[in-house]
Amino acid sequence: MILKNGIDQAALIDKFTDATAKQGEALRKAVHEATLKGLQGRELTLANIRQVLGTVTKAASAGAAGSKLPAPDVEALLAKAFAGMDGALEQAVVANQRALQQLVDQGVSLRETQLKKALVDIAKMEDTLLASVRKAAPADGPWTGVFQAMQGKTTGTGARASVALEQLMEDTQKNLRDGRAMSLRATQAMLDSYATLASGVLIGMSEALKQGGAAKR
Question: How many angstroms separate the CA atoms of 152 and 138, rounded?
């Protein structure tokens, strides 16, 4: 088994090649889990996110290309693949928000250069999702219909990012009003570990979801 960016491309390709028209939800979950797995264990930078989304998109595209289903059904399956990636990136947004929230709660200012960049990265999550999938997908074929259907719509990632940024700014303003601030030395120590902290939060969220699912079953 050869993994690229932590993703078993061959397994994902086979799922799309062999899928029936009724297995869209199963594919969405498979793509969601593969994307999350790719994002885990690495810093949640936009560069790493682009690599993972590109790998997943290429695998889904390769599998869809070998499908015997009619074009409309293949397009529907790829739409589910996009939804799976969107859902995983939503969790990445939440992980970034929770990591930032930990810093804000301890008095770190979002005016710090590294946190300003973190906020900008959250704001760019939706654009990163769309651009990464478009770049990795074939220029023509069933993906075209998927992209057309998304025009003018906000992704789950984009909606989640807007909420996260609003909440973080509100909490930061409250801290400023309350006069809370960390020492420069303590602030720098936490800033240096931000990306790793966000990655750890994502892993924790994923484990909690798995345990929750097991409990339900």
Answer: 21
Q: For 49-64, how does the pLDDT look when each residue is reduced to its tens digit (9 = 90+)?
A: 999 999 999 999 999 9
pLDDT confidence of residue 93: 92
Predicted local distance difference test score (pLDDT) of residue 216: 44
How sure is the predictor about 213, in pLDDT bands with cuts at 50, 70 and 90? very low
Distance CA 195, CA 208 (A): 20
Strands (E), the chain: 3-4, 7-8
DSSP string covering 114-133? HHHHHHHHHHTHHHHHHHHH
- Mind listing the pLDDT tens digit for each residue in 70-97? 999 999 999 999 999 999 999 999 988 8
215 alpha carbon, distance to own chain's centre:
25
Phi, psi of 190 (to 5 degrees): -75, -35
For helices 9-18 and 24-39, give the axis angle rounded to 10 degrees.
170
Percentages helix, strand, coil for the chain (3-state, rounded to 5) are: 80, 0, 20
Sorted by sequence, the CB contacts under 8 Å of residue 58 that are 6+ apart come out as 9, 136
